[in-house]
């Protein structure tokens, strides 16, 4: 199934997905491509089994399963690349895309927002501005009302 590029996929400083947990499938790309389009399997599908991976901690696995639930099929995350004519370029693009997806899903959630109160001075300025606008509009009405 593999030829040549047996290399682990580095997601971040803490996580590296071993090459043995990645599956590649090759097929023909659709669209124009000249004479070679019917003979070269340049489209690449890269799959990573999130549910059964040994390289993920329980915390990482849980976070990935929650955040990527809409992208998973049976616990497997699949990414396809067919934008390049060369299979090697599509393999690199698929690996980059998979790493970026996993990196984004593993990022810690943002800190919760602390609600803040409007200061008294800001309230007064806002009300003063509204009164001023109201007065201007009152003057526009004229005496014919």
UniProtKB/TrEMBL annotation:
Provide the Prokaryotic-type class I peptide chain release factors domain boundaries: 15-140
Q: Which GO terms describe its biological process?
A: rescue of stalled ribosome
Tagged with keyword Hydrolase: yes
Which InterPro entries did the record assign? Answer: Pep_chain_release_fac_I, Pep_chain_release_fac_I_sf
Q: Could you list this entry's UniProt keywords, alphabetically sorted.
A: Hydrolase
Q: Return the annotated region ranges for Disordered.
A: 20-45, 101-145
Q: Name one GO molecular function term.
A: ribosome binding
Which spans of this chain does the record mark as coiled coil? none
Biased-composition ranges for Basic residues?
114-145
Q: Which SUPFAM superfamilies match?
A: Release factor
Record's keyword annotation contains Transmembrane: no
Which NCBIfam families has this protein been placed in?
PRK09256.1 (NF006718)
The Swiss-Prot or TrEMBL record describes its family as follows: Belongs to the prokaryotic/mitochondrial release factor family.
Protein name as annotated: Aminoacyl-tRNA hydrolase
Record organism? Catellatospora methionotrophica
